[in-house]
Write a structure and sequence with these properties.
The chain has helices spanning 2-15, 20-38, 51-62, 78-88, 108-117, 120-126; strands at 42-46, 68-71, 97-100, 103-106. With 132 residues, the protein is α+β, with helices and mostly antiparallel strands. It has one domain (2-126): Glutaredoxin (3-Layer(aba) Sandwich). The chain has a four-stranded mixed beta sheet, with helices on both faces. A hairpin with a 2-residue loop joins strand 3 (97-100) and strand 4. This is Glutaredoxin domain-containing protein. Belongs to the glutaredoxin family. CC-type subfamily.
């Protein structure tokens, strides 16, 4: 939780333009993302119809994980969350954005690299997303 909150706060500082309303809205978005991520073992932020998002979800489902999936194009705060995820990811692709055990894992490249090198399943087990 602390790592996610730190990632979200640092991204918020980079986004914030000093306007009080923007800051308030940003804090609300950061709070929402932090709550979702800290309350679930695996969270995948996606956009419906995105093929890379589909690949990540299918990989996780195939491993036996039931991730919490947040489709940003179907969320009222989807645009601001997408902007925040873009900042958290270091300016790269914003979705899919995968969080495991309350920590930002990364996008499709990182998830696939972890799967290929054998580190994904242990991460999922440590997060409580897999029991076997």
């Amino acid at each position: 939780m602390e790592v996610v909150a730190k990632d979200v706060r640092s991204a918020a500082v980079r986004i914030g333009g000093g306007v009080d309303q923007q800051r308030t809205d940003l804090e609300s978005v950061c709070g929402k993302v932090s709550a979702i991520v800290s309350g679930n073992a695996v969270v995948v932020f996606t956009i419906s119809g995105c093929c890379m998002c589909h690949v990540v979800k299918q990989l996780l489902f195939g491993l036996g994980v039931g991730p919490t999936v947040v489709e940003l194009d179907r969320e009222a705060a989807g645009g601001p969350i997408l902007s925040l995820l873009h900042r958290i990811g270091g300016g790269g692709k914003a979705v899919p954005a995968v969080f495991v055990g309350g920590k930002f894992l990364g996008g499709i490249e990182t998830v696939m690299a972890c799967h290929i090198n054998g580190s994904l399943v242990p991460l999922l087990k440590n997060a409580g997303a897999l029991w076997l």
